[in-house]
Specification:
Mean pLDDT: 89
Radius of gyration: 20 Å
CATH architecture of the largest domain: 2-Layer Sandwich
Oligomer: single chain
Distance between the termini: 35 Å
Structural class: alpha+beta
CATH topology of the largest domain: Creatine Kinase, Chain A, domain 2
Amino acid sequence: MEGSQELAPKLKKKYPMLQYFTDRSFGVEIEFYGLDYYILPPDNGIIKPYNIHSKARDDRSFLQLLMDYGLKLGTDKDSWHLEEDSSIVHRGGVELVSPILRGFEGLIEAYGFFQLLGQIRGARIDESCGFHVHHGVDGEFYKCTHLKELVRVVYAMEDYLYLLIAGGRIAKDTCRPMDLDAEALLKVACENGCKKRGCQLKELWYSHENRYDADCKRAERYDMTRYHGLNLHSYWYRSTIEFRYHSAVLQKIDEAMQWIIFTQFLVELSDGRIPLVDYHSKANKWMQTIYKIYLAFGHMNRINGWRTNKSVVLQKVAGP
């Protein structure tokens, strides 16, 4: 794997949206199956690297593959690690989980692990596998008004997002469209901090309509409300916004990188940051989606080089 100094200019050229990427913390989770490994009860569901028998496509050992890419897998949740994942309906179902990452250096780390996954012999994905991205928010500053703005943007674009993502994700129980009454949520008066009791927005999220079950015996982490494309349960559980819409990726590294950048852009928008963006007629689908969002929400003056006769004018969010 190339060093970060050699890789940085290539990524900046490859992903023009990187110019809008901030130092906000983020993390990723990628589900796949076909890994050959063994695990013991004391391992707490985390797969130790030396217990992985899978080899690289060119027959290198897994440990050699890690070494050649200059990457390290740990055995605790504060490091890059592999966990068993019972939600995947195939043998060898696992999830690659990152530690808390930040900024461009974090993206470079993620890029390296995406490359690694694509080199594991037998690793596969299907519609049961997801690619989840978390973006960190500080509950002291990111409050009810910001959550409402995030819902306002994502709710308007949600059908379009599903169309842009492969794998029929809209039909999956682990990344459902919003079940809550989004229009009622947008009318909520933001009087209290959303981390406190009495927050109407929080009450709407944890409602029966949104699949909340007060009698459910699941651990708090696995509250049923989390299984939406936009998971706000994560806001109250771990101070992140989770996007679960995307299908897993193994070979399509560019798609994974652009999804991380795009979803962070959505969080930044909800936090009041509306950067001036350059218009390019041949921009990738996620940059085109940002144009649509800007047009839908009255930010046309923030698109440099935009003219009203351009083809991405948004009357109603429809297909790509």
